[in-house]
């Protein structure tokens, strides 16, 4: 009774849907089918779809196997003739008195064990062959890489024995997988090793610095120039290298660092002036003074407000003196200050500073110059004048002078020049921790 009610409700819903469709569009054709006709139409659609799907699968399988060289008809016949029941069915237990069944089971067990063992041996042999092939390929690849690194036209003979390979001296002429920069370094290492074998002294850093001149990256050459300057120090006591705080090691390092920073800045000024010769108005006697004067003309230093004590050849006297000191030409700075009539008092201190071996005034001169700085120069509006006074008299060593030392190299140069070693306190006036801060 319940099923009839469910079918009646389903029929009513179907009739309602039909009425809704008819009201929505009166142009649709009316198809009247009973349940049997609907079932038969569904079966026909299912058979048609299944046939197409199976046919497509067979066609794809035939194309795949045919492209691999298989005979599809013969393969189908062989598959149909196979009977997998004997190999897959479990062996039925037999009674102890059933001799025929016992022998049959033993025979089948022996065959299955032989087949399983053969399968394991086949897989093990295939895996061993695969690893041997991989090792052979790896050895060939390793030999090719080593030959490319050596850069010789002859291939290396790699042996598995523990014999020492003694070949002819390497030649840098031939094929190589290294680029031009790496080949330049490799060539210098080769030359250094040859010199070492012959008992000759050969500086590897010097040769690397010379080789870096031809590199397109100028930063690499600057880096090697810095390294060469720092290691090019006089002979030191045997224990000096083990003590980083030893004055015998730190003082030469500070001197070399100062020379390197001054030389690099002189090259920078020369490049800046030569790039704008028309605007720089370079002329006169060749030397540091004319380069600095042209450099200040490019930077329009004369237009800076607050400059004092006049000009020399159209440029501020204290700016000229500062940049001459920055380039390491202290004699040029002294000659510039001597040409300014308002700097007669400071000229004596600068002459003593230039003529001293350690670039340091005597204790009395340094005290008088500091008093002069505190009395008049500290409040000066000329940043170059304050910087030169602090540099010569080591006044206010903690001041960084940002107006004239705007770059890191300028800051480091000023601090290196202002630092000095006190023999009484056995320490530097400006410790390394203060430089780091």
From TrEMBL:
Keywords: Membrane, mRNA transport, Nuclear pore complex, Nucleus, Protein transport, Translocation, Transport
Gene Ontology CC terms, in alphabetical order: nuclear pore
Top-level taxon in the UniProt lineage: Eukaryota
Keyword Nucleus part of the UniProt annotation: yes
GO biological process terms, semicolon-separated: poly(A)+ mRNA export from nucleus; protein import into nucleus
Cellular location(s): Nucleus, Nuclear pore complex
UniProt keyword Thylakoid present: no
Gene Ontology MF annotations: structural constituent of nuclear pore
Residue runs in coiled coils: none
Transmembrane residue ranges: none
Family of this protein: Belongs to the nucleoporin interacting component (NIC) family.
The protein's name in its UniProt record: Nuclear pore protein
Organism: Geodia barretti
